[in-house]
Amino acid sequence: MTRPQPDSQKPKRRKAARPGEIIEAGLQEFATKGLAAARLEDIAKRAGIAKGTIYRYFDSKEELFMAVVRSRVVLSLDQFEETVANFPGKTDALLKLVLTHFYKQFVGNEISGVIRILIVEGPRFPDLVELYHREVTSKGVTILSHIIKRGIERGEIRDGPAAREPRLIMAPTIMAVLWGLTFQAQDPIDIEQYLNAHIDMILHGLSA
Amino acid sequence: MTRPQPDSQKPKRRKAARPGEIIEAGLQEFATKGLAAARLEDIAKRAGIAKGTIYRYFDSKEELFMAVVRSRVVLSLDQFEETVANFPGKTDALLKLVLTHFYKQFVGNEISGVIRILIVEGPRFPDLVELYHREVTSKGVTILSHIIKRGIERGEIRDGPAAREPRLIMAPTIMAVLWGLTFQAQDPIDIEQYLNAHIDMILHGLSA
Amino acid sequence: MTRPQPDSQKPKRRKAARPGEIIEAGLQEFATKGLAAARLEDIAKRAGIAKGTIYRYFDSKEELFMAVVRSRVVLSLDQFEETVANFPGKTDALLKLVLTHFYKQFVGNEISGVIRILIVEGPRFPDLVELYHREVTSKGVTILSHIIKRGIERGEIRDGPAAREPRLIMAPTIMAVLWGLTFQAQDPIDIEQYLNAHIDMILHGLSA
Amino acid sequence: MTRPQPDSQKPKRRKAARPGEIIEAGLQEFATKGLAAARLEDIAKRAGIAKGTIYRYFDSKEELFMAVVRSRVVLSLDQFEETVANFPGKTDALLKLVLTHFYKQFVGNEISGVIRILIVEGPRFPDLVELYHREVTSKGVTILSHIIKRGIERGEIRDGPAAREPRLIMAPTIMAVLWGLTFQAQDPIDIEQYLNAHIDMILHGLSA
DNA sequence: AATGAATGAGGCTTCATTCAT
DNA sequence: AATGAATGAAGCCTCATTCAT
């Protein structure tokens, strides 16, 4: 994505950026149409290159597809572990912080395209699913688990059935993502209000 | 799947059942592979007929696809309106009843295949999305809204932000469906425990 | 090659003959142009069918290629074993008989196309080479060996170095085949005269 | 193959030798794979240069191909005319000398690759065929004809049918070349023994 | 009505050739 | 002169659709 402008006056070529641009174009097409329906010609056109050029960087359509998914797996959740560990305030403030971040990461973002891709093509690419689960999903769940544990220790979270399913806390986020991908036209979500309601629900749902 | 034998003497063919069997087979293939990657030949084989026969009942692959989605749109939610309207007990019992029903309808069921289909192919078939939203999604939301309204009137539900987003109540169900479709191998969901946690969360999250 | 005319008035279709016709067309194209340069479209056109039809009978271009070679491997040499074993006359008559037959089989015949194919594509298809060697070449050599052995026993063939290399006896045949494929325009072979010279040479070369 | 170091101080590049090295590399690839299947990239790699550099020396793949064939057409047969004209000894010694030389020239040598090339691609390159015939084949035949004529005059060769087909004398050589290219794995030729048998056969086959 | 062989458009992939550096 | 990235024409192959039986 970073395009180092060469110091020439004509920034026509940016060789080093090619693979990234192809991946970018591929993400758009794959996310919209799926693996089979996306055409390499369209991806090339979108990347501003010729069809054959893709093959200089990726061995096949499938390889490009996998590269696209992998490229968006690197989620900046790692920093959050620290944030959560050192957070000084109350659980509701922490939850607000984390959930807000999740929304920014996912909703209306290109990450939602990756999620759509995984839902559909997952069965044919178990490696990608496994990768995504390991690097993104399970990390998110772990963070939520830590928040819950911390909240229980602080006496702010009720140690009941809901506290044992951290995935429940993400559920509204995931649904918002998919709702946006699917029913946006019929029934849009007001993200701000939805996020507030989400936090409100979780805080009361878990509070001691 | 049940094949009612016609009272003819030669029970080898049941013409009337053909379209349904093709739709059934199509659902399996489309849900697993998506519209583009599913092959009519495989659908035919699964339905126990020849490829050309599909065209006796459907004009094209897309027509079959739409028929498949439409066939699963008829959700038995209508009855619930009445149930909710006449329910004598407390809100938590009513919620338990409805959510349990939702899980039975969706999770691990072929409906989840339709949901997957819609998530992916939705952009190319806005009519189907609109249909599904109108017939299924919005009906479900309406039912939940009524439950919430009823709960507030009965003083059992807190009239806060969470009460204004009935979609929040379904979110864990949707997530369970997609989680099952995607991460089942890596990280299965114990549906019973998850449902209990879900209800626990909602009841506390909404309770007055 | 045999085309059983259906008893319909329009002999438009001969399903059973299709694979044979494709192989026939493939032989022409492969023999003339080689595997890589032959185009499936041309083969189809030559066979009077559409490109895709080839794939109903053969999985790939390579499979067709192998089928083409295999189809011409069945050489009617087996009968000769008997002929040689029971031949009543002198060695020169027997040799004349066998060599004449070899010429009829190879020279100017489509078998020469197969030989050309094998010479070029052999390295990539060791199985075909092995098959051809086993079914055709080694059988021919065996027959010649038997003739030599019989001639020595009858005192008609000199038991010298030449008698120990039966391949020498076929050599002029092979060369005639390749000469015909290559230098026919510049320097044609008068097959009749060449065959006579060949026999003359061998008989004297081997005679006691 | 010998790379004469230019007297420049930087011996890393020897431009003058480039075309020859490309031709050398091309011969290997074309002989092994044929014109269509050989890849310029592989030829370049084998020559230790970049793909584009080939076009500095040859206009197209076909031009390179023709150059490859032409480069191996220059056969040192000319000297033999003299040798034969002035040979003092008997015909069998002369034949032995010439045939031995033929074997050295052809068998197991890269010339066999050229022969393979011509057999396959000949129809598309009549000029090359004509060239090869004129410069190599017909010269060889002429030499053999002279030997035969000389032998007849000396009363050492029988003036029969075999004497009128000098190509017969080369046939075992050609066959040995092709056998080596094709059936070497299944059924190798012991060249020494084969050559002896060949000479034995010819001498007796032609002797008066 | 059913079949499945045949068609041919469309998309992936290769690679000779070009071209900017 | 050399490089190797980029191009795009061409060919293999798939599969939705048609059609003769």
Q: How would you describe this structure to a colleague?
A:
4 copies of one chain form a homotetramer. Chain A is mainly alpha-helical and 208 residues long. The first copy, chain A, has a single domain (61-206), classed as Tetracycline Repressor, domain 2 (Orthogonal Bundle). Chain A contains 10 helices and no strands. The first copy, chain A, is elongated, with a radius of gyration of 20 Å. Chains C and D meet through helix 1, helix 7, helix 8, helix 9 and helix 10 of C and helix 1, helix 7, helix 8, helix 9 and helix 10 of D. Chain A binds a DNA duplex (21 and 21 nucleotides) through loops.
Number of domains of chain A: 1
What structural class do the secondary elements of chain A suggest? mainly alpha
Number of helices of chain A: 10
CATH class of chain A, anyone?
Answer: Mainly Alpha
Layout of helices and strands, plus pairs?
The structure is a homotetramer of 208-residue chains.
Chain A: H1 18-37, H2 40-47, H3 54-57, H4 61-71, H5 78-86, H6 91-106, H7 110-121, H8 126-153, H9 167-182, H10 191-206
Helix pairs in contact in A: 1-2, 1-4, 1-7, 5-8, 6-9, 9-10
The first copy, chain A, binds a DNA duplex (21 and 21 nucleotides) through loops.
Key features of this structure:
disordered N terminus, Tetracycline Repressor, domain 2, 208 residues, mainly alpha, homotetramer, DNA-binding
Structure in a nutshell:
By secondary structure, chain A is mostly helical.
